[in-house]
Design a protein that fits this description.
globular, six-stranded mixed sheet, single chain, alpha/beta, nine-stranded mixed sheet, 17 helices
Length: about 475
Amino acid sequence: MPSEFTGKHVTVAGLGVSGVPAAKVLHGLGAHVTVVNDGDDERARTQAAQLEALGVTVRLGDGDTLPEGTELIVTAPGWKPTKPLFTAAERAGVPVWGDVELAWRLRGLDGREPAPWLAVTGTNGKTTTVQMLASILKAAGLRTAAVGNIGVSLLDAVTGEEEYDVLAVELSSYQLHWAPSLRAHSAAVLNLAPDHLDWHGSMEAYAADKGRIYEGNRIACVYNVADKATEDLVRGADVEEGCRAIGFTLGTPGPSQLGVVEGILVDRAFVEDRHKNAQELAEISDVNPPAPHNIANALAAAGLARAFGVSAAAVRDGLRAFTPDAHRIAHVADVDGVAYVDDSKATNTHATEASLAAYESIVWIAGGLAKGATFDELVAGAAKRLRGAVLIGADRALIREALARHAPEVPVVDLDRTDTGAMLQAVQEARRLARPGDTVLLAPACASMDMFTNYNQRGDAFAQAVRELGA
């Protein structure tokens, strides 16, 4: 039992998918654990009862007061740094870690060699890239798992019985903010666009937290050639001697880059004499789906895998074996010559921009909670691809106004309802606007919680409505 936790008074901030495992692990390590939680609903009370049965103290309905004697806080990633609990901790000199920081510090406590982390962040594409990376690593015969913000606990991965050769780790900006000592084998920032600014306070603070993923990298910092902000983060990172900057691009790659040449994904980074040679990795057709932003995800995953020494054949085999999660640019059905595609996961303008760029003629279903976003740039860039638009949700007027300014010729159906049944009407209206060869695309550019529990339920409603069209 590690002396640094034995008898230590640790406050865990927040229940849920990160707080409960953290409390259990810390209690098992001999710490005196108190959990504080803002909510006091039925779910929280059930979780509290489970922890109290183990001997953990739980305070519901008060997540702002620092428990007396606290020596360390381990927080859920979503709790804002401005919360009074953390202000009090700063005044008292109490350090604050996230669950990722705790997992990082617990590696190897059982005497096993810690598995290196290949880490991924970015505004969009994180989950897909990490899953692609795990598929590639498995194709190489490595024991691995996709963990972190993807929904699989890092704490479970580092403290469980299963042994890994390497971990594919998805990290959000929230998690990175609370992980000061994380040092990955190699890491990638896929892209940067305004998101979660209410939490971080500014774009600069958001970018700085994303950039933490590069700190202390040993082998490679993978960045997006098309997004200069990601390269700037590499330039500003304090890495180990010999760590390389590796770019990925949808164009022809230069030395120390991965890219695309005549439909082939190629590597000019991890080859001998990269100024003259390139290694074929896979064909575009090996990427599912072969949309431009997904090819970029595949290149980033390949870059991290190659940094870990994985063969070109394993990259190809892993990409071929990969199946994307639901609601990520997923083809639902063809009805009367029109394709219906569910990209409900496109909850911000950056993700929606990539989704719209994947198709030539689109009837766009959009709307929901805008989270402070503006839509002029998105609409202006996609205007020539739009056959029509069907708008739903609380903040649909913002998109309607952007369409009026930048795509006035595009017919718009504005559905003045926010109940879940609106999706069936939206799909029916989209069918009326579409022509054979078009794509009806659900890419809302907004969050879903005004009408649905989450983006999964929204995508399911879209798919069900499409199935009713073809019935």
